[in-house]
Design a protein that fits this description.
Bound molecules: 2-acetamido-2-deoxy-beta-D-glucopyranose
Shape: globular
Strand content: 5-15%
Protein name: CFEM domain-containing protein
InterPro entries: Extracellular_membr_CFEM_dom
Subcellular location: Membrane; Secreted
Largest sheet: 2 strands, parallel
Membrane topology: Lipid-anchor; GPI-anchor
Number of domains: 1
Distance between the termini: 31 Å
Keywords: Disulfide bond, Glycoprotein, GPI-anchor, Lipoprotein, Membrane, Secreted, Signal
Oligomer: single chain
Strand order of the largest sheet: 1-2
Length: about 150
């Protein structure tokens, strides 16, 4: 599909998703401080301006609690289906304003984020104030294979 040409959010557009993570990368110094209790408001500071509103809207609409990145990350397909058409420019099949230059760094940001949350799930959300969607997250991953690398 044209929308997935950059594959920014949908890392595997193959039919059956796998809960994937690299343990070494997840444990890199600074990650915990960067991601503990992560909210959408805090995360959008890290994405380009053209993406902020799309990111924010997608986080409210993908079925997960807005400030639950463990859920957004395992819910990649629903999330990408919302954020990509919103952010991608017409030449990439969307109706957004991001240029390919702006989108370039986003993949690394999302991979790092979701690698961390795929690996840690709710550990970094213990004792955090926001509502979470643990049931949805667990219902998604219980049907998936887990692929751990180091
Ligand atoms: C896992 O992440 C580490 C640190 O970023 C990297 O050096 C290693 O190559 C990665 N492993 C795999 C299998 O990608
Ligand atoms: C996180 O896991 C989901 C499946 O639950 C997978 O689709 C996604 O690609 C994984 N993200 C990373 C960065 O490995």
């Amino acid at each position: 599909m044209r929308l997935h040409v950059l594959g920014l959010f949908a890392f595997s557009s193959i039919a059956s998703a796998q809960l994937t993570f690299n343990v070494t990368k997840a444990h890199e110094t600074g990650n915990w401080d960067k991601y503990v209790c992560l909210t959408n408001k805090k995360f959008i500071e890290r994405v380009p301006d053209c993406l902020k509103k799309c990111q924010s809207d997608a986080a409210k609409k993908d079925g997960c609690a807005e400030d639950d990145f463990a859920c957004h990350c395992v819910n990649t397909q629903a999330f990408s289906d919302l954020v990509e058409p919103c952010a991608f420019p017409p030449e990439l099949g969307g109706h957004g304003t991001c240029t390919t230059d702006e989108l370039g760094p986003v993949r690394g940001i999302i991979t790092d984020l979701c690698n961390f949350f795929n690996a840690s799930l709710y550990s970094a959300y213990e004792d955090c104030p926001q509502p979470l969607s643990k049931d949805l997250t667990h219902s998604i991953i219980e049907c998936e294979e887990t692929v751990i690398t180091y």
